[in-house]
Each structure stands twice: as C-alpha cells, then as structure tokens.
Amino acid sequence: MHYVTDLKDIGNDKDLLIIGGGFSAGDFDYEKIKDMTTLALNDSLYFDDGYTIIEPDYMMYNDLNMIKVIKEMIFPDKTKVIGLNNAYWPDVDYCFRKLDIAPARDGHNLAVKAILLAQKVFSFSRIFLTGIDFYTKTVNGKVTSHLHGEKIGVGQKYVDDRHYNTHLKNLDKRVDEFNVIEDRNNIFNCNPDSRLTIFSFLKPY
C-alpha cells in the first residue's frame, strides 16, 4: 500500500492547479500551463461521452462511487489516483489518511482536503483553483453547479424555488468549510466570479 506521504515535498518550488467540477474549469486555458502539475477532483473532468478536458497528473476522490467513473476514463499511466484510507486500496495509487488533511473532517468538501494535502504533504509553492465556483446555472432546464450539467443531490432536480434556495444554502455551507485553511497566502482562485472569495484572484498565465 502506498500513502501520500510517499510523495512528501514533491511540490517544492512548483505550482499546482486543482481542478473542480464547476463551470470555470471549462473556461481555463490549459494549453498555457502544460508544465504545471494538475490535480483533478472526483469526476470533474469526466463527461458521459468519455470526453475529458485534460489528462491530469493526479485525480483525488473521497467517494467510492467515483471508482467506477475513474476506471472508465482512458488515461495513460501518467495519471495517479488518490483516495481516502485503505478502504480504497487497490483501486487507487495512493491513500491519504485523516491526519494528512487535518483540520479538515470527513464531511468537508474535497477541495478543502486537496488544498491541505498540497500544503502540508506535497509542499507546493503556489496553489491555483479552477472549477471551485459554488454558483449555479440552468443547463437543459436543470439548475446545476457542475460543468458537465449533472443534477446536484440525489433525486433532486432543483426546479422549484424551495429546492433552489436549499441548494444555495448548501453552497454557502460548503464555502464556509474553507475557513479551516489558515495559511491562504499561496492559494489563488482563478475565477473572479467564484463565491469562494477568501483566496485572492490570480491566474498562473
């Protein structure tokens, strides 16, 4: 079994781009960051037709349901998969443990955990975020926060005001979870319209 601590300090003097599933991930110019290390969250880059935006260096997830999705992706050996604890072995290349992402908890947004890993274990000099948006759009008549248009929430389409307002409250709760990250000086949000405003806006190009 391999743990993320085997990758300790791989980010010294390097930049990292963390890619979430929000709409800004589709607007990012990946051609300009070919030499930057990339880490994609859950199925952020996956579309039903098998199309992916880029082939990331790392993929990270904390949902066992994502295993099937990731296995269906046709990525070369370049992409290494990171999952939570040994429950995911041997479906991942590296496992992370709760102590690796402290003070984040199990229920925290995966982007929070990824940032803490990038800081505490990987030691990246700068961390850029794209697709970490926390706002909604209407796609094919359904309110969603995901670039690939899927519904958010099991069985909920958010087509009426009650569901929509509940969804907005859930987004606000997720944004608040990032407050556990104390050192924010080297973290930059690439989307100026993101509701995640505790990080400065800056693009790496």
How is the topology of this model organized?
Layout: E1 15-19, E2 37-41, E3 58-61, H1 66-72, E4 80-84, E5 94-96, H2 98-101, H3 110-120, E6 126-130, E7 137-139, E8 142-144, H4 161-176, E9 187-189, E10 200-201
Parallel strand pairs: 1-2, 1-6, 2-3, 3-4, 4-5, 6-9, 9-10
Antiparallel strand pairs: 7-8
What does this structure look like?
- There is one protein chain.
- The chain is of the alpha/beta class.
- The protein has a single domain (4-201), classed as Alpha-Beta Complex (sialyltransferase cstii, chain A), CATH 3.90.1480.
- Helix content is 19%, strand content 19%.
- It contains four helices and ten strands, in the order βββαββααβββαββ.
- It has an eight-stranded parallel β-sheet. The chain has a two-stranded antiparallel ribbon with strand order 7-8.
- The termini are far apart.
